[in-house]
Design brief:
By secondary structure, the protein is mainly alpha-helical. It is built from five helices and two strands. The two termini are 30 Å apart. 14% of the residues are buried.
Length: 109
């Protein structure tokens, strides 16, 4: 039972880490809609291709996205349909966020 808790804790921590970056969140939300190639994602999100490459590598490492080779291109998609469902559920949450809380480095939560 303790091993399962540790596995779940590690998985949630990995998800939290992935969601802690605004660019990664935007990538996940975009891929929730449809698979995409990195250059198109970079353009749509207004980031450089290098930033996109780094963020996709992080999301791949977390097991949240996967690359599918098609000819000379690689399409990225969410690695599991349950990720899209989880994102949808999180978007349905209604939260009150104190604007003074968690503002940059001064977070005391």
């Amino acid at each position: 039972m303790e091993t399962v808790a540790l596995t779940h804790s590690a998985a949630l921590a990995r998800l939290g880490s992935a969601l802690s970056d605004g660019t990664r969140v935007r990538i996940l939300l975009a891929l929730r809609e449809a698979p995409a190639i990195p250059s198109d994602l970079a353009e749509a999100l207004g980031v450089s291709r290098q930033v996109m490459s780094n963020q996709l590598a992080c999301l791949r490492g977390c097991g949240l996205v996967e690359g599918v080779r098609e000819g000379r291109s690689t399409w990225y998609r969410l690695s599991d349909p349950q990720i899209a469902a989880a994102l949808e559920e999180m978007l349905r949450l209604v939260l009150f966020v104190d604007p003074a809380c968690c503002a940059g480095e001064s977070c005391t939560c």
